[in-house]
Write a structure and sequence with these properties.
The complex is a heterodimer of chains A (188) and B (92). With 188 residues, chain A is an all-alpha fold. In chain A, 75% of the residues lie in helices and 0% in strands. In chain A, α1 packs antiparallel against α2. The two termini of chain A are 42 Å apart. In chain B, α1 runs antiparallel to α2. The chains are: A mainly alpha (188), B mainly alpha (92).
């Protein structure tokens, strides 16, 4: 996970609103910095980083909503980004767990095949039996079925995310937030 | 508002709690997802998910123990009193 960008220029003597503006600007820039990286579906870590950046920005907006009430619609959008990227991340984690189990299973099959090949009599038959057993192994079939499904689900989720948030959607969100910063709440 | 030294100490303490809680929470979320996912599946896939859930149970117990240890240690180190004391002192 990428560490949060350090926010410079925070002054205890400045107003809550002034400091809030600075924090929100930095957190928005941080979110937008992942835009190009996430165009590549294989960059799982950067997709996760963008989710964390969305979370940090949302928290900042929630804290300073009192000063900038026009940020409200952006909160909903950021929640949506977090949810979409969260679902992608969960599927990435799950797919990796399944891959690891499949690799471990394959390793055992390889070891079994090597041991069978060393047998003096009918080594070929023994190897074939090991491979045949592996091909029918319910654990292996289950893993392959689950993995294929999760990869497909991830693809669908990613495409939906890119369609919604990689183009003008993200621009509009940034614009909403920037506009909100120019319209602070008036004190009564 | 806070001195750097005070802030870093508080932040470190809170991070320890958050990390320990996060480990348990992540496993809970994943476990819930796998349990939901296991329903209405072919038998071979249920077999895989059941095995994964059994392994996660062990990880979850370990994470829970780590959380309990962290909280106990922080109580022994009087974290609540230190935290409230620092906040009260620094904001007056």
């Amino acid at each position: 996970m990428a560490p949060a960008t350090r926010i410079r220029g925070i002054k205890p003597a400045a107003s809550f609103q002034q400091n809030g503006e600075r924090i929100i600007e930095v957190r928005l820039k941080e979110l937008l910095s992942w835009r190009d990286a996430v165009a590549d579906p294989s960059r799982s870590t950067d997709l996760h980083n963008m989710r964390i950046a969305a979370k940090r920005l949302r928290y900042a907006l929630e804290i300073f909503e009192l000063c900038f009430p026009e940020v409200k619609p952006a909160l909903k959008d950021l929640s949506e980004i977090q949810e979409s990227l969260g679902a992608i991340h969960d599927l990435d984690v799950l797919a990796e767990m399944l891959r690891q189990r499949l690799r471990a299973l394959d390793l055992r099959v390889q070891e079994g095949a090597v041991a069978a090949a060393r047998q003096a009599d009918s080594a070929g038959d023994h190897v074939a039996a090991v491979l045949d057993g592996a091909a029918r192994d319910p654990q292996r079939l289950g893993l392959i079925g689950l993995l294929a499904e999760k990869i497909g689900e991830r693809q669908t989720q990613y495409e939906a995310f890119i369609l919604r948030w990689h183009g003008p959607g993200l621009d509009r969100l940034a614009e909403t937030i920037r506009d909100a910063l120019t319209e602070p709440a008036t004190s009564e | 508002v806070f001195s750097k030294k005070q802030y870093r100490a508080l932040r470190g303490d809170v991070k320890r709690i958050a990390d320990a809680l996060g480990q348990v929470r992540d496993l809970d979320v994943l476990e819930e997802r796998l349990r939901r996912d296991r329903q209405d599946r072919p038998e071979d896939q249920q077999l895989v998910l059941t095995a994964m859930l059994a392994e996660m149970e062990v990880d979850r117990k370990r994470a829970m123990q780590s959380l309990t240890d962290t909280l106990t240690r922080m109580e022994e180190e009087s974290f609540p009193r230190r935290f409230l004391g620092t906040v009260a002192r620094e904001t007056i």
